[in-house]
Amino acid sequence: MKRLLIFILSIFFTITFYGQIKAKVTGLCSNCHTMHDSQGGSPMAPYGGLGTAPFQCLLRGNCLGCHGQSSTGGEYVLWGSQKVPQVYHATEGTDLAAGNFKYLGTDDNKGHNMFAIDQEDNASMFPPPGYKTDPGITATNFSCAGKYGCHGDRTVTGETTSMKGAHHADDSIIDGNTTGTSYRFLKGVLGLENNDDNPWQNASPTDHNEYKGLTSPDDSASATSPGTGGSISGFCAECHEYYHGDDLDETGGSFSPWMRHPTDISLPSSGEYTNYISYSIVAPVARVTLPDLPSGVVTPTGANDDIVMCLSCHGAHATKFYKLMRWDYANSSLSTALKGCNVCHTSKN
User: How would you class 272 by CB atoms within 10 Å of its CB: exposed for 0-12, middle for 13-18, buried for 19 or more?
Assistant: First the structure.
């Protein structure tokens, strides 16, 4: 009887413990791994039909094999009870917060055209626009993770090895110290991951990711680090550094009049900006102090919150609009083209 009680209690505490961990992978090991890459005497087919097995870390697929296999479905697939987000899926209107790589099927200019997805092999996009230090990314090595990608440890060349162990990490506290404890596995980046009603989506003004921002660009951002401040714009600056920094020879410094649209800067507390008081998922803002829960309130102070960031205008993966814009900036209709601009610039009509 005593052994039975201990067994029951151990199950209870295990369930409770894992229930408090937001994104740590749960379920059967065989959902993701295979010991010998063999089933019925034959090699196992890789997830999504992408890549050539066997894969490193005994995985059953590469990044897109796992997260881009919903060619006819929606924003996630189920492996047992585990939801696996799909960054490349067929159903419009269910795009994740970062967008949907499906839009690259018709136009490279709509997203980060990784070689595993790219349909046009557009080498003219490399090196990345706005680069200060060439990161070495080309049309044939641009990947999801690692040195030539975005996720994982960017000091590690391999896509899989740069992510090693991250999916098993306890990320209940996002501190940026490791890949597993960084926002969305972007090493060094801070943020609040939306994993509640609409996992991985920016669904509404009160149901969305919260992004880390700063009141001025972090000069410590480099080709492999978003900087000590951990802002999402500092992360973009790893490849697009001149769009973020304050080098006098390129951006005109950090003072008005601007030569490029500013990032990591607080919304001014005067003029048209004071009317942006309700969080917009069309043109979201970052926060200096990350809230415990997604907030629908915006407070332009000009000093400490809320922050203009790269993702205020752009998607991270791909969008249906030119240059990864969050709205149809190139539309011939002025009201449509200004849909996102007017969120901050409320008098520009």
Answer: middle
* Sign, Cα dihedral of 164, 166, 168, 170: positive
d(CA 107, CA 231) in angstroms, rounded, equals: 29
In 3D space, the residue among 338, 186, 175 whose CA is nearest the CA of residue 272 turns out to be 338
Q: Which two tokens stand for residue 309?
A: 């960031």
- Parallel, antiparallel or unpaired: strands 210-212 and 191-192: antiparallel
Residues 335, 113, 338: CA angle, nearest 5 degrees: 10
pTM: 0.89
d(CA 98, CA 111): 10
- pLDDT tens per residue across span 279-313: 999 999 999 999 999 999 999 999 888 999 999 99
Q: How far is CA 299 from the centre of its chain?
A: 24
The secondary element (H helix, E strand) that includes residue 65 is helix 63-67
Q: Is the peptide bond before 54 cis (omega within 30 degrees of 0)?
A: yes
Cβ-proximal residues to 292 (8 Å cutoff; 6+ apart), any chain: 192
